[in-house]
Amino acid sequence: HNRYDMLKQTLMSIVAQTEIPYEIIIINDNSSQEAYKQLENDYKDLPITYIVNNESKGPGIARNKGFNVSKGKYIVFMDDDDFYLVNDFLLEAINKLEENKDLSFVSFNTITYYEETNSINTNKINTKGFINGQDYFLNFIKKYQKPTSTFPTVFRKEKLIQANFSTMEMMNDASIYLRALTQGDAFIFDRYIGAYRVHTSNISKNIPFDFIIENIKEKYNIYNLASDKFKTNLEDWLLNQVLDTFRYYVIDSNCNMTNAIKFINLTNSITKLSKSKLYYNYFKFIILKQAIKLR
Fold first, then answer.
1. Whole-angstrom distance, CA of residue 157 vs CA of residue 73
2. Segments in the chain below pLDDT 50
3. How many Cα atoms sit within 13 Å of 207 on the Cβ side?
4. Positive or negative CA dihedral for 247, 253, 258, 264?
5. Which three-class secondary structure state does DSSP give residue 262?
6. At what angle do helices 275-294 and 257-271 cross, to 10 degrees?
7. CA distance 222 to 235
8. pTM of the complete model
9. C-alpha 106: how far from chain center
10. pLDDT at position 19
């Protein structure tokens, strides 16, 4: 959406991948930049399926639309501002997926590129090698870190279909990984293969309230999916996932008391989690937020 110059760098980093046949699906989320009118002509030699939304629907709907028209056995979800730094990671990923049919995805490490200061940081996942899917799911973020975004990850499409992926609307990276882990295992390579770009047009952290509620609904859907798959009580897991969303909302965004109480009531209504636990953690996060400000 309105980042044509960045998209060009993204596309060139995909084209550089060696020995792997691929298709590129671009969802134009109702961009206003005139440059996009040249896209099909500029890249007429690439295997691109180009879809233009008549109105802006957000990244979740775009990912879902791309997924539903994709033809491949494996899939990568990539934003238009990220790019790859090596030309053989797809080959390495697919070889591993072919070797182990129980893997839902394989992933790699990334760097963060800060465009304004032309500086970088490394994002190294705190584990490597094979990880049992149920173990990763139950300890998601708590023990095992999440890969940075979804562009350094190759997913097995069949596993996402089994996880009812095409029914999703709230499709952020955490929910994609969690659904995939209900159906299979993961493998983390110890390589840095791409750059997550931070710039002035990144999605703002002034997060809309409705977005947070949709996130809670999706966590509850995943909770039901995993409870059925793993045959175990996951209420503590659900509480931790809700609190992780809540922490992000309170600490990193402009959450006021009115919205916080509304959030707690709606979360309780959706998930049936204890209001007292939700209120207790809300005030804990508020104290933490004040401490961060004072520091």
1. 6
2. 204, 295
3. 20
4. negative
5. helix
6. 150
7. 12
8. 0.92
9. 14
10. 86
